[in-house]
């Protein structure tokens, strides 16, 4: 086993599926102690049981990123059961494709609560624990659509753009305390979030805009988060890492 996260306790939100589950499996192999949570309690319990059976140290719970009380409970679980907190992956999020005129107030509030407020609450509750541990690292999940427009998913894009700048301002605020904060910006990734949220014909159209001409895999994003959470990224804070097959570099010239 390699040890890029050896001795570190890591919280992962939205850990039951997709990129969250990929991070959990990768981080465990890299020596991390894990506190996993998801609103899907059954899914996160199943993943935790798999990792424990493989000999990893994992605690889990059902929790909602929009609840400050739930976040407080998760951070306390990590500190009490895993000996402190050293890193946070603010991974949980939802995607809806509605544009400006189709976005209701209810939909806007739901997406903003999960994708934006959830990130703020995660940082707010984790940072005191990271401070008690002498510093640490946070990865906030944004999107390629936190960097560029698309003509759809208005509320989603708004939240992902907000996450990008929330990350930067937190990075500046907490750099003197050895707490690093960076954002990851994935392209279309082969996860339930995309498969259930984007029609197949629309996905094919979007992938034509990716210079690498393919959908991404959850493990590819997990490795980016691993780097930012590890000590290998010790001088990196306030950065945005696009894991996007070249999407944000520019659209390829059409045939």
UniProtKB/TrEMBL annotation:
Tell me which UniProt keywords the record has, alphabetically: Oxidoreductase
The keyword Cell membrane is annotated on this UniProt entry: no
Keyword Oxidoreductase attached = yes
Q: Which SUPFAM superfamilies match?
A: NAD(P)-binding Rossmann-fold domains (SSF51735)
Top-level taxon of origin: Bacteria
Q: Family assignment?
A: Belongs to the short-chain dehydrogenases/reductases (SDR) family.
PANTHER family found in the cross-reference section: DIHYDROANTICAPSIN 7-DEHYDROGENASE (PTHR43477:SF1)
Official protein name in the record: Glucose 1-dehydrogenase
Species in which this protein is naturally found: Pseudonocardia kongjuensis
What is this organism's lineage?
Bacteria, Bacillati, Actinomycetota, Actinomycetes, Pseudonocardiales
């Amino acid at each position: 086993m390699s040890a890029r996260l050896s001795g570190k306790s890591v919280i992962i939100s939205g850990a039951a599926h997709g990129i969250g589950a990929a991070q959990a499996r990768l981080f465990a192999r890299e020596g991390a102690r894990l506190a996993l949570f998801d609103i899907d309690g059954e899914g996160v319990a199943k993943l935790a049981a798999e990792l424990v059976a493989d000999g990893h140290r994992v605690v889990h719970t059902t929790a909602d990123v929009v609840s400050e009380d739930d976040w407080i409970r998760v951070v306390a679980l990590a500190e009490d059961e895993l000996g402190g907190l050293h890193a946070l992956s603010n991974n949980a999020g939802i995607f809806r494709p509605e544009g400006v005129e189709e976005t209701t107030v209810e939909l806007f509030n739901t997406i903003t609560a999960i994708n934006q407020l959830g990130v703020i609450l995660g940082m707010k509750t984790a940072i005191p624990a990271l401070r008690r541990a002498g510093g640490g690292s946070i990865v906030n999940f944004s999107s390629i659509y936190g960097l560029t427009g698309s003509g759809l998913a208005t509320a989603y894009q708004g939240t992902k753009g907000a996450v990008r700048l929330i990350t930067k301002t937190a990075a500046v605020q907490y750099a003197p305390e050895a707490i690093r904060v960076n954002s990851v910006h994935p392209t279309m990734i082969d996860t339930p979030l995309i498969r259930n949220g984007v029609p197949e014909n629309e996905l094919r159209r979007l992938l034509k805009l990716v210079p690498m001409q393919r959908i991404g895999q959850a493990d590819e994003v997990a490795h980016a988060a691993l780097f930012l959470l590890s000590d290998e990224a010790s001088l990196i804070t306030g950065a945005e890492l696009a894991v996007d097959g070249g999407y944000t570099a520019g659209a390829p010239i059409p045939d």
